[in-house]
Amino acid sequence: GVIVGVADNGDVEIRDLSRGDLVSRRSLKTSRVVAIALDGVSQRIAWMDDGGKISAEGTPNSLNGRPGDRTLVWDSDAGVIAVREEGVLVGWNPDTNDIRQLASDIPQPIQVLKLKRTPRTLICIAGNQQQVVLVISLSPDFASYSFRLTGPRIVDGDADLETHRLFLLTLDAQLKVID
Fold this sequence. Notes:
- Helices cover 0% and strands 53% of the residues.
- A 4-stranded antiparallel beta sheet has the order 4-5-6-7, with no helix packed on it. A 4-stranded antiparallel beta sheet has the order 8-9-10-11, with no helix packed on it.
- The protein is globular and about 40 Å long.
- It is built from no helices and 18 strands.
- The mean pLDDT is 90.
- The protein has strands at residues 2-6, 11-16, 22-27, 33-38, 45-49, 53-56, 62-64, 73-75, 79-83, 89-92, 99-103, 110-116, 121-126, 131-137, 145-149, 154-160, 165-170, 175-178.
- The protein has 179 residues and is mostly beta strands.
């Protein structure tokens, strides 16, 4: 695996997680990056600036994301996954500018946006007081589902898709396990 870091001036480093070795260094030619995502196949980078504009290396196309959100993921098939201005979660192909709607009425802010590789699934947790938890299948063979939660704010989450368990970490340091 790799980790991607971006400096205030838009300089990016990609490092190997196991050894810390530098894999790549380049500049995004922007200085207001609030979110970044790496396509694991092409090693291209997508980013969001502080105004919500989402861009990607190698194309002049852009997408109007939701200002205030600070997370993106890049799935090699679905594209760059983000929330648009109107609260719709989308997969955006930066090369063709095609957009695929994944979910609507996503509250602000996005707390968690994680991509699971096997099966290809997206975990999205959004909102502050009443939060929405979405588990969205990016594979045709699996179902998607969502539910609302109240209580302490969820700050992180993950899933074990083999056992169908969802793990949610709350602001008060509680771990909720949902079957």
